[in-house]
Fold this protein.
Amino acid sequence: MITKIISGGQTGADRAALDVAINLHVPHGGWVPKGRKAEDGRVPERYQLKEMATESYPARTEANVADSDGTLIITHGELKGGSRMTAEYALKHQKPHLHINLDVLRGDDVLYAIVNWTAENHIAVLNVAGSRASEDPDLYDTVFEVLNNAVLLLKIRRKRHSSERPQTLEDAVNRLIDDLPFKERTKIGNMPEEDLLPLYPTFMTHIRDDFGLWDDNPALLASCRTIAGDPHLHQDEAGPLIVRKLWKKLQMTHRLRMVKGRQRHGA
């Protein structure tokens, strides 16, 4: 279970990780060079980072590796420059590290790799590194989406033991709602249906592994088939059905509505 996310505050992957922590209300931190030095000037004050006594990037990188339980490095392509140095420091300090090469791993494989590595290595304090914005302008968005989904999935798995499996579609929907932070419930409840697709990998992993939809929970599959009116509904179709039902329920309970103010009448 990730209890804290740290990084060096650089543009790109570093800041995406810190913004995920802020978005999901996970404590964050890390070391930055003296003067909060970054390639775009100064690391914004909204990030709760500690300054080193030196302006050295390598010193900051090593401190963050040493202070974490493991380091996640995300890049397009092989390790080089600061990212390669990060991996070398992880080896030096005998800390677990995972390199995600987005030119090799894509889609669900990235999410599963992060979640499984984090769980297997019992990572509580996660250090995140990777390419800076000048080297890879699109990396911030990718890291934010992938890491946000991974942390959410780890939270859900922690709250629900695999033996506590829902038996009906309604129970599955309620279980998912209970496990979601209020902010995420509101976000999902206010998105259009066509925006649900990027959410499927996160929820489908949970529905598959923890709800047992693909193996030993025939009651849940039977309930989905009844609701869908299709006795031959496949597991691959039942999963998205649960996600859509979740979205529809959150539309009713968490959708923001404009309320017109009462007209004031003169005396």
Observations:
- Residues 164-254 form one domain.
- The first strand starts at residue 4 and ends at 6.
- Residues 139-159 form the longest helix (21 residues).
- The beta strands are 4-6, 28-29, 31-32, 37-38, 41-42, 50-51, 70-75, 97-101, 125-130.
